[in-house]
Design a protein that fits this description.
2 copies of one chain form a homodimer.
Chain A: H1 3-22, H2 53-64, H3 86-97, H4 109-125, E1 139-143, H5 146-171, H6 176-187, E2 190-195, H7 201-209, E3 212-216, H8 227-239, E4 243-250, H9 262-273, E5 281-285, H10 301-304, E6 310-314, H11 315-318, E7 326-330, H12 333-340, H13 350-354, H14 373-407, E8 413-415, E9 423-428, H15 444-464, E10 470-474, E11 481-487, H16 495-532
Parallel strand pairs in A: 2-3, 2-4, 4-5, 5-6
Antiparallel strand pairs in A: 1-7, 6-7, 8-9, 9-11, 10-11
Modified residues (N6-(pyridoxal phosphate)lysine) (chains A, B): 317
InterPro entries (chains A, B): Aromatic_deC (IPR010977), PyrdxlP-dep_de-COase (IPR002129), PyrdxlP-dep_Trfase (IPR015424), PyrdxlP-dep_Trfase_major (IPR015421), PyrdxlP-dep_Trfase_small (IPR015422), Pyridoxal-P_BS (IPR021115)
Keywords (chains A, B): Decarboxylase, Lyase, Pyridoxal phosphate
């Protein structure tokens, strides 16, 4: 593909992308292909001679599009959003054009320096405490995902805890051999912590780092971790000879967007740290909800997690920057580089050695990196603070409209958590015709029927494919509650889309209710006939 | 930015990218900015209201370009190449447009299915044994970088070794508590291995996984790991109570593109495994040189590493696919998912549960993933097998031309390793005028002077910035050799570029030699004058 062929191909690709976005509402949001669909459409192997772009491009609509779930559709109300935007796409075009491994400053100074500048800007935009910015001992870095960020901080937390332990033992006069022996034993006892609502990536990070992971149960209906629960867990671990070294606290949990009680967690950690030089690393996971910190009404929140060692949110979720752009901030960058830096001869240069430059490879797991700050720079400049605030505000308005609708429809729905950050989590009531009492049997039968109906409604909605939602299970065993999560954060989402979603869901509820009542009537009839025999 | 503004902006961006590529030879390949240059050019903060694309785009040439090192320039002869291409850029445009977190099959089936198909195709293109493809128990997955791939396999190797150990102890009738105690001790003794020429990412992977790492010394001038050396190292570790569980073997080392002796390594491992059910995981790191396996003359090589557990090469180095596209193949995909799978309720769906689909999140560290197979698909279809072969062949021809030139110039240069995969590693001889004997003093003085001259030549070349090369240090202490690495693999590189590089380097040699001789003459004169006093 020469330059003029590329110009033609790229123009055609841009037309296709624009058409895709302009008409995305008309596409079935959820793909309905069956596993293995693509193998049947694509001839095996690589062609011997090159193909024309027209032939390649034709396959995008014909073969790829049917297998896509359209995350940019306003009817995508599942998981959390994964925003893309035109300025973001432009950023990745240049990133591709300027391709370089960028593992140190010298590889392309602009890649490192723009990242530092952009992350400081974004940190201020979300009102982060100054400690997390680059002027002092902290700073920000772009990671691929929040889960990758958590893997990084768990490894750093583990190594910091081991280093602090070694220092303590050395001060006590232990020999190197004795210290090594004790480190070995300690590794086996280290425990990473998160609440039962924290994202599973903490568990995965612990698996990668080779340490244990335990969860702390939160209260049903609250779903937020408190200092009291943490203190109790620490005591429990200590009683079992185990050693907590890391905690994921969450701003906006995945199931319900609950926020842990940062002030009481801060106090609990301060009390714990009063008696030991061995510090538990606290990471604030705000992967999705962190974007809401651009709003003035949330500007006070970051001060409440100033005690944390690290903070992370994904611009690629709710802040109009196409995947991947996960912003990780640390209070002390040395904590990362102590755990992740190796500097072999062929990566050495006068700039790195001077300490004047940041080598982000020492802040992350991979060596090489893309020029990801370009897209974040384009997005923040192209939208401006006002544009980014307007986008998040619009989603919040969508969420509030949906809350209003379900609150006004107590016959069909019960909110199972306080709506937060544009997310509503609702369960569907059993059909009123069945007259299942809410409170008898401790609500067990009601919950069971509600869970069944909610699951059937969720499956029906996704089978229809007019909107895409996910369901979640809160609590355990008899107490567990199945609920539908509805969150509209796509770039083009409007309040009317959530009104439509309410209609689609309600139609599904009515259909499932009718089936349930019919089944119950048939069962009752059968019962009567059996008794008559 | 609305659709019509995007069309205009994207057309302007495409024109700029085409102009950048068409005239890249004219740009100074190595950036000459000083640390902190960008802070002075960019006003702090995010603008309150959005800016026009024209204003943003203007800053690319004015502010970003000066801080770029141009990896696509034919004058970029440093590190290893990091190819970009037009079809690759188109792939990332669509990947951005279709942005989705893609952490499981259902998120967008096309993302998963195309990756499996493309990696099978690419695996066949580089003549991988069938065991590494998806039809059996193995398969390929796109990772961000070779270092990330190595982190993944080290974690998987560690967990496989621990699982095999646990199974052995359970079979011996040990209790759960006893087994846990022994696992804890074993973790502290596990050692990941690589030769002294293996990439530093093995060391970093071991740091992340929380295990030891040791290197095995190779012979000077050979730089390849042999079975004999591995066997000796295993015996040494066992004598010290340590336990090897993982080995990085390399096809094309970073310093000299040496290739480990796979047949003898295979035999050594087979001998070791004959007496134990606990398997050492061997990973073949072919990050750069793997691309050369598209050439028919190397098609026999992959059969020699059929014994390995995993293999990795980067399409984003030498195969025209913009970063990131690192292809990792494993013999047994269960080894990865056993180590990396967690499946919480909100990530469950009927397709994942059925086992019919691949959820690549369980093959990697991060949860979310981009649609990276698109660019690999576009590149392989657009170039065809012939186009990819022609690209690698052209680089090989460049390398051979450079080899011919330095071999014909024994006055200036000595090749310090067998040229391989387009890489030449040369040291510069001391000025002939100084008449330093090559062999006296075991060659110590000659090496010392050669190293000094080589370092000065390398620094001078990169200061001039007509071409960009990296230097490397082989061996240790008195024996160490400083050498210049020259490898031309950029998409537009021609044999004439390497002829030019030879001229540029030779001019630098002559200039440094003249300085050295002048300094030596001045020193001698001073000596004479001092003696005269």
């Amino acid at each position: 593909m020469d330059s003029s062929q590329f110009r033609q191909a790229a123009h055609a690709a841009i037309d296709q992308i624009i058409d895709y976005y302009d008409n995305i509402r008309d596409r079935r949001v959820l793909s309905e292909v069956q596993p293995g669909y693509l193998r049947e459409l694509i001839p095996p192997g690589i062609p011997q001679t090159g193909e024309k772009w027209e032939d390649i491009q034709r396959d995008i609509e014909a073969k790829i599009m049917p297998g896509l779930t359209h995350w940019q559709s306003p009817n995508f109300l599942a998981f959390f959003p994964a925003n893309s935007s035109y300025p973001g796409i432009l950023g990745d075009m240049y990133s591709g054009a300027f391709t370089c491994a960028a593992f140190n400053w010298q590889c392309s100074p602009a890649v490192t320096e723009l990242e530092t500048i952009v992350l400081d800007n974004v940190g201020r935009l979300v009102h982060l405490p100054e400690e997390f910015l680059s002027a002092g001992e902290g700073g920000g870095v772009i990671q691929g995902t929040a889960s990758e960020a958590i893997a990084v901080v768990v490894v750093a937390a583990r190594d910091r805890y081991l280093a602090q332990s070694k220092a303590t033992w050395a001060a006590e006069g232990l020999s190197e051999d004795e210290i090594e022996e004790k480190v070995c034993t300690l590794r086996g006892k280290l425990v990473a912590l998160g609440s039962d609502q924290a994202h599973s990536s903490t568990k995965k990070a612990a698996m990668i780092a080779g340490v244990r992971c335990e969860t702390i149960e939160t209260a049903m209906g609250e779903y937020k971790l408190t200092g009291e629960q943490l203190t109790a867990k620490i005591a429990d671990l200590q009683a079992r000879g185990l050693v907590p070294f890391y905690l994921t606290a969450t701003l906006g949990t995945t199931p319900t967007c609950a926020t842990d009680d940062f002030p009481s967690l801060s106090a609990a950690l301060a009390a714990h740290h009063a008696s030991t030089p061995l510090k538990i690393w606290t990471h604030i996971d705000a992967a999705y909800a962190g974007a809401a910190l651009v709003l003035p009404e949330f500007a006070h929140l970051p001060a409440t997690f100033a005690f944390a060692d690290s903070f992370n949110f994904n611009m690629h979720k709710w802040l109009l920057t196409n995947f991947d752009c996960s912003c990780l901030y640390v209070r002390r960058r040395r904590d990362l580089t102590d755990a992740l830096s190796i500097t072999p001869a062929y990566l050495r240069n006068e700039y790195s050695d001077s300490g004047l430059v940041t080598d982000y490879r020492d802040w992350q797991i991979p060596l090489g990196r893309r020029f990801r700050s370009l897209k974040a720079w384009f997005v923040t400049r192209s939208y401006g603070a006002d544009g980014l605030i307007a986008h998040v505000r619009k989603s919040m308005d969508c969420g509030k409209e949906f809350t209003k609708l379900v609150k006004g429809d107590a016959k069909r729905y019960t909110l199972v958590a306080e709506p937060a950050y544009a997310l509503n989590v609702v369960r569907v009531n059993p059909p009123p015709e069945l007259e299942i009492p809410v409170d008898s049997d401790g609500g067990k039968e009601f919950r069971k029927r509600s869970n069944e109906v909610t699951r059937k409604v969720a499956e029906r909605i996704n089978r229809e494919g007019k909107i895409f939602i996910t369901s979640t299970v809160l609590g355990k065993g008899d107490e567990s509650v199945t609920a539908i999560r509805v969150v509209g954060g796509a770039p083009r989402v409007q309040v009317s889309d959530l009104q439509n979603a309410y209609r689609v869901i309600s139609e599904a509820v009515d259909a499932v209710w009718a089936e349930e009542v019919a089944a119950e009537t048939a069962r009752a009839k059968e019962q009567v006939e059996l008794q008559a025999v």
